[in-house]
Amino acid sequence: MAQPMGRVVHRLSRIYVEKQLLTVDEEVLVQIDNKEAGFLGNISIPYSPDEKFEILEAVILNQQGAVVRSLSKKEINTRSYFSSDTYFADKLVKEFHLHWNEFPYQVRYRFQWVRSQFVSVANWSPRLYGNVRTQKAILQVSLPADYPVTVTAAP
For strand 133-134 and strand 67-70, is the pairing parallel, antiparallel, or unpaired? Predict the structure, then answer.
């Protein structure tokens, strides 16, 4: 049996505060090398119902980098997000699946959410998947000059 071969090629997280709104714009490119790594094309994005949330792009790229498939709005499902550590669901999840039959291929998606009420600006890790290598991850945070900020790192 072949080992799952895939990786996060590129992740760019842009976070900014402007006019008392927190905006997160996330772009992800994953490489899927074989059928066993196909799970990387199953995308789930949790968000809050009080956020303005939008999937801006979701496409499949072939080996040459050409778009061979684009996700349509009707292929995006929304459901309640249930977690083992909560008794009720106060979040939603947008889900979609992008798969192709010629390996390797890449899945690129981009989404954005805007929130008016927030306590923290970013709780970020460069890794999207615990068992999948991340080749490149970038966090960009843009805040007003007078915005108070404290930076802490997890152990």
Answer: unpaired
In the chain, which residues have pLDDT < 50? 1
Nearest Cα neighbor of 25 from 129, 124, 134 is 124
Contacts of 35 (CB under 8 A, 6+ apart): 2, 103
- Rg for the chain (alpha carbons), in Å? 17
CA atoms within 13 A of residue 23's CA, in its CB half-sphere? 13
For residue range 60-80, list pLDDT tens digits in order: 999 999 999 999 999 999 998
Whole-structure pTM value: 0.89
Tokens read off for 87: 């008794």
The answer for residues whose C-beta is within 8 angstroms of residue 125's C-beta and 6 or more apart is 154
Determine the pLDDT at residue 2.
52
Distance in angstroms between the alpha carbons of the first and the last residue of the chain: 36
